[in-house]
Amino acid sequence: MGRENKEQVGAAGTVTVTGAGWAEAAPDVMLVSIGVECRDRSVDAAYSAAGADLAAVADVFRSRGVAAADIRTTGLTVRADLVWREGEGQQVAGYIAVSSLSVRLLDVGTASGTIADAVRAGGNNVRLNSLQLTLSNDFAVREQARAAAWQDALQAARQFAGLASATLGQVVSVTEHSPGQGPAPLAGIQRASAVESVAIEPGESRVDSAVTVVWELQPGLPA
User: Residue 88 has what DSSP assignment?
Assistant: First the structure.
């Protein structure tokens, strides 16, 4: 946990302080973006190949106990594969079909092996786009982060009240700010050709909080 604050003494006998804090916990969910990219001479062939390869990848996740609700198709595109030929200009050499899945893995400990098997099932056409580690429920961690932010603000407010030869009175207002702390990403892999599992160290996910508090200032030195 840490400290970071901004403060100002108001003209009407108040002190306003912004406190910041954070808390950490081990992530228990891995979000995987995985897809396939298939080239062929015709649209139908490229489209069919992409469908078959992505189905094989999805089957691996299902066979490892991943629920249907945690496997979602996130994209499907087909585009021309253009090449430049001297004297002919730009020509269509074939077609590229790209399709992808978003998968939610609830067992971080076995995620590495599951992903390796999925990559193996799709072969050289697999693209492992990104891995992200996050928390399935950050409520308890967020409470700790809020408490740290509050203590940060309170300590600073007490110091400024003392410097102003005053004491803290009642709280006038409390405003919470929510820093956009997203999942902790792992490095993206554009082309996955190895089929052996890669060790994944989950570490800890951090949740940030910030709160702005306005206190009344009462005359008199603090006890």
Answer: T
